[in-house]
Amino acid sequence: MLVWLAMWSVGYAMARRREEQQTARRLIQERAVAGERARIARELHDLVGHTVNLMLMQAGAGRRVLDKDPAKARGLLSDLERAGRDALTELDRVLGVLRSDDPDGDRPADASGVATLPDLAQRMSQAGLRVTVQVGAGLDLPRSLDLTAYRIVQESLTNALKHADASGADVTLRRDGQWLEVVIRDDGRGPVVGYRPGRGLLGIRERVALFEGTVTYGPAGRGGFQVHARLPLTSVTTAAEEPAR
Q: Residues in domain Histidine kinase/HSP90-like ATPase (predicted)?
């Protein structure tokens, strides 16, 4: 009897262990799927949301001046076409990254990053939002952080153009010790009382959290809206990761 009880106990313990291992593997797989879905959602939201809003603004501006200033309307239509082509190029890049097993894998030389912020500022200015960009010295960023900083700026400017009724925005990137600071401040009407952050701001928070950084957003001191992100430089710099150029 004692032998039978001992054998039953061993068998029961082994069965429970196998069940716990299967449950743990299932939870890991579910978390991996959820994380991948969140990554895809962030990339597509940043790309599609920004580009579509920009194209809508350009199309609206072209319609308003079509009869009064045909030459300006043609210029806006050219900008609209260029934005569409750029969106297709960027979509190909995003889909290529999403298909890759390495999310920090090689990116095309013209991929979005801090170096392309002046191009982003020009596109936003053409859509009606005057943007100034200041990038501090010594910002040789790892590739993943380089893209994240760009996406934070892109989403913040898109929100300023779409929601804030802003005419201008200032973008500042600087190094503060072992931290990268990204600050975007617009001159719009600021948030309404009781506002809740939308998908764009939540996406920024998720991106910053991946680097164990911090982000705050809300009314700016002189009116308008401000996004202030701090991202650690040391946690993402590895021997195998080259700075972005």
A: 149-234
Q: What predicted TM-score, i.e. pTM, was given to this entire model?
A: 0.64
Question: In this structure, is residue 64 part of a structural domain?
Answer: yes
Which residues form the domain of 129?
Answer: 31-232
Assigned domain for 68 exists: yes
Provide the CATH number for the domain around residue 175.
3.30.565.10
Chain segment 159-207, per-residue pLDDT in tens = 888 888 889 999 999 999 999 999 999 999 888 777 788 878 888 998 8
Total domain count for the chain? 1
Dmax over CA atoms of the chain, in Å, equals: 100
Three-state DSSP at 133 gives strand
Are the C-beta atoms of residues 49 and 56 closer than 8 Å to each other? no
Q: Does residue 213 form part of some domain?
A: yes
Residue 226, pLDDT > 60, answer yes
Assess contact for 167 and 130: CB atoms under 8 A: yes
Alpha-carbon distance of 143 to 104, in angstroms, equals 7
Domain contains 118: yes
Structure confidence at residue 104 as a pLDDT band (50, 70, 90):
very low
The residue behind tokens 């943007």 is 131
Locus of tokens 């308003």: 64
Q: Hey, what are 118's tokens?
A: 């002046």
DSSP for 70-96 reads HHHHHHHHHHHHHHHHHHHHHHHHHHH
